Amino acid sequence: MTADRVTFTYPGADRPALSEVSATVGRGEVVALVGENGSGKTTLAKLLAGLYHPDSGTIRWDGTDLTAIHGDALRRRISVIAQDHTRWPLTVRENIVMGRPLDEERLAHAAAAAGADRVIGELDQGYDALLDRRFRGGHDLSGGQWQRIAAARGFYRDATLVIFDEPTSALDARAEHALFERIRRHADGRTVILITHRLASVRFADRIYVLDHGRVAEHGTHAELLRNGGLYADLYELQASAYQNPPRSSQNPADQNIPQEAL
Ligand SMILES: Nc1ncnc2c1ncn2[C@@H]1O[C@H](COP(=O)(O)OP(=O)(O)OP(=O)(O)O)[C@@H](O)[C@H]1O
Ligand SMILES: [Mg+2]
């Protein structure tokens, strides 16, 4: 899949969300899109998935211009776990299967892959639990629990391309690690576009595109980008330093107003 000098402006916007963006996503690869808020990551993923059409430039899948591929055929091949994933007022099972033929084994597999199995296990009615608090007997889930259900939806679909748009923003550390591990194993041979701000988790990606104000600032592997010393290296160092250099005051109890006998 390739984007060739793609430019896209949202209706009514005064400047393009993407300008002359070129990118390549190989079959079976995990390609990460990173960059600051508003840099164009979600927009690029939606263009690559054929959800929006570029104003200029082309998106090709296996050499075929995306505009020539029928919408239904495209939708069958793509699974998008959107940043603002939908919380359907339906049962857990319906939320994951979402219009696809039901296959219980596949369902269990997808739930486990997304870490949703633990959430479902704690619901009295399991897969039959209604996720709608407005009704008697309905349940609501926490943000992170919903995110696991949304990820399970993504794994359930038999798509060749899976787009994970910040799939772990609400997940706890353990669930986040587990989900990235699963994506790392190429989600069972599928092509993955992964959008995340957690740079420690994109090190394994086959290729990383760094977006800045709607343009590709740089691209390469994690090691290449660190060597470049550009935007990616800056953002990565910033995140890494948050873990490596705790403030001095927290290293030295004497600097804090904590009674010694409490330590
Ligand atoms: N539906 C929309 N209508 C108009 N402008 C939009 C729309 N969605 C996004 N934009 C604009 O397009 C630009 C790119 O947005 P996009 O959502 O692709 O950024 P992003 O990199 O995914 O950001 P974030 O990290 O916050 O998710 C931004 O300037 C944003 O304001
Ligand atoms: Mg986004």
UniProtKB/TrEMBL annotation:
Membrane topology: Multi-pass membrane protein
Organism of this sequence: Actinomadura rudentiformis
Pfam families listed in its UniProt record: ABC_tran
GO cellular component, one term: plasma membrane
Record-level Gene Ontology MF annotations: ABC-type oligopeptide transporter activity; ATP binding; ATP hydrolysis activity
Annotated segments matching region Disordered: 244-263
Stated name of the protein: ABC transporter ATP-binding protein
Predominant cellular place of this UniProt entry's protein: membrane
